[in-house]
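re: that chain from earlier
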Amino acid sequence: MFIKFSHKRLEEGQGLIEYALILVLVSIAVIITLSLLGDSIGGVFWQVDAALSGQTITGNGTEYVVGGFSASSSGGPAVCSVQTSTFVVTVLQNGSPAAAGQTVSVSISATGGASGSASATTDASGQASFGAQTVSGNCSGSVTISAGGSSRNTNY
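^ sequence. v structure.
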């Protein structure tokens, strides 16, 4: 009886090792697949983000996706200081994220006020991160951020 119990316990351990090996092989396959398709998946994500915000991405040439942001105003009563939150602009080259080191320039404008500009450099994932930006404008209205022919706006 002791020998049977021992033998059964060894078989259970063998089953666990087989499951662990299967998990390792599946993990390796997923990592390889994501490595090969990573840029394509990122491009699809940015196309969806662009479509939801009214920006058009064709997948041809250099294109820009202005990420979401918020804005608020302070001061007044006639002219206010309008500040955006931080935001990201993604640069796509033929539908895939652009290489690092590209300079991205944006213009920021508020309803009834002056416009401003800012620039940042893309990282390895094709994204340029911008800090909060301030322009003057009406105490209520909308802010528009434009980059390379694409733009996104939000109300404040």
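Residues 64 and 91 are 5 Å apart (CA to CA).
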